[in-house]
Write a structure and sequence with these properties.
- The protein is α/β, with parallel strands linked by helices and 176 residues long.
- The chain is built from five helices and eight strands; from the N terminus they run βαβαββαβαβββα.
- A six-stranded mixed sheet has the order 4-3-2-5-6-7, with helices on both faces. It has a two-stranded parallel sheet with strand order 1-8.
- Helix 1 (8-24) crosses helix 2 (40-50).
- Bound molecules: guanosine-5',3'-tetraphosphate and magnesium ion.
- Guanosine-5',3'-tetraphosphate binds at residues 36-38, 59-61, 94-103, 132, 151-152, 154, 157.
Amino acid sequence: MDPIAFSYNEIHKTVAELAARIMASAYQPDVIVAIGSGGFIPARMIKTFLKLPIYTVGISLYVGENVTLPVPKKIQWIDEVEQKLAGKKILLVDEVDDSRTTLEYCIRELASHHPAELAVAVLHNKDKEKRGVIPTEVVHYWAGEELPDAWIKYPWDAVDIEAHDRMILSLPSSQP
Ligand code: G4P
Ligand code: MG
């Protein structure tokens, strides 16, 4: 399947619509936790609408010793996480729900620090068989858009943003 590319403006509109759904819900988060690095820019965009402080965690998938499948590894974690997040309502933000491996790992880590509640917002969820699960501690799960299992090209990964945007304009309107 061909990659699906998004412009900054398209992402902004997805975030605006996603934030509107979050605000219309009964869930009122106290803090955003962004999963880096893909979740950093989406979290900052969501902050424009929800006006909440952002904490960040850095997690990456790596192939560990005697492990054939990649497993998540902490690159950076919130200092004094227990004091910062205990008793808080967290909105965990990432750009894409792909295999769910990183997402599940991160949710379980955060849940172990006794937040009051935990919800998840992703820009895009891929319709595919998942390796991870969304643990039952998660009270809300929001996806900006449901997409097929294709590679998503985000504008922040583009070295030449004009070429990235030109490519989007030249594509047939087959994008969701
Ligand atoms: P998930 O739990 O959120 O589903 O993520 P998963 O572990 O399956 O994803 C592994 C890495 O691949 C993640 O980056 C994720 O952001 C990235 N990824 C998955 N699908 C896509 C895609 O379609 N497009 C792009 N651009 N990235 C994708 P990571 O290893 O956590 O690192 P980082 O890039 O966020 O720093
Ligand atoms: Mg990521």
